[in-house]
Amino acid sequence: MNETILLQCGELMRRGSSSFHKAFDGLPSPRREAVHVIYAFCRIIDDSVDEPENSPYTIHELRSMFLKLEEAEGHFIWPALRWLFSSFPQLSQEPFLLQMEGQLTDLTFTHYETMEQLESYCYLVAGTVGEMLLPVLRDDDNEEARSAGISLGMGMQLVNIIRDVGEDLRRGRRYLPLEVLQRNGYSEQELAQGEVNERFIAVLQELKTEALAYFRRGLDNVRTYPPQSGMAVELAAAFYAAILDAVAAQDYNVFHKRAYVSDEAKVLMFRRTAARYPLVH
């Protein structure tokens, strides 16, 4: 395997999400490189829908080439994926196909009515990532761990939705379910105008409660992972949960500001988490 190809995946992850890169950087090889490949492919899938002008492929081209993976050429992701599936034979292609199916819905289904619809979407675009990572992060096929991995991914997607309300509206999408808006007395007109008031804050807090519940379920069995993997999962969850605090710190103005977690805060979270994993270092 050409090491440069794996380094390119790692660089794509570092540029795309410094939080994820830092969280998984302590994994031993080849688990670390496998996470880089999974992230890189998911990033390319995401960009094919959200930023098609910057993507090497359309979502349809990606799916077609993935289905003929042994023949796919023209980008470093294809040999990287071949390496991934050959190094981790227990890894299924199914969650990757579901991930693409979820991203395809963004092209046609842009306004959500119910939490049930939103949760189905969160599973497809993010719960599946938990399923992809599971065979890479641990060596056994554990149904409880699979369920936890799905929950963690779905919680992270809810955080993304909270953080990116304004950005998504500018793309013509409303992930905040209409039933949640109505339950909290916040109108679609107010949303379109970017009004931050107590009713909007109540909408975000309802989704925040859901996200944190997914995180709790996602971390239920983290101690059954190999120590380096468990620490990586805890770090990823901590970094993402901290985005919710950053949203609150900027008074829930997610229309014009992108909430982010400072490097200093990440260092503190890293130290706190590492203290629970003394054998990792």
Topology:
Elements (H helix, E strand, L loop, with lengths): L2 H14 L1 H7 L6 H20 L8 H9 L9 H11 L6 H12 L9 H23 L5 H21 L1 H6 L7 H6 L4 H5 L5 H21 L8 H23 L13 H13 L6
Helix pairs in contact: 1-2, 1-3, 2-13, 3-5, 3-6, 3-7, 4-6, 6-7, 7-8, 8-12, 8-13, 13-14
Average residue pLDDT: 94
Radius of gyration: 19 Å
Gross CATH architecture of the largest domain: Orthogonal Bundle
One letter per element, helices H and strands E, the order comes to HHHHHHHHHHHHHH
CATH topology tier name of the largest domain? Farnesyl Diphosphate Synthase
Give the % helix.
55-70%
Counting helices, strands and paired strands, the structural category is mainly alpha
In CATH terms, the superfamily of the largest domain is: Farnesyl Diphosphate Synthase
Largest sheet: none
Please indicate the percent range of residues in DSSP E strands (runs of 2 or more): under 5%
Please identify the top-level CATH class of the largest domain: Mainly Alpha
Low-confidence stretches: none
Indicate the overall shape.
globular
Q: What is the total tally of β strands?
A: 0
What is the terminal-to-terminal distance? Answer: 28 Å
Number of domains: 2
Q: What is the number of helical segments per DSSP (H or I, 4+ residues)?
A: 14
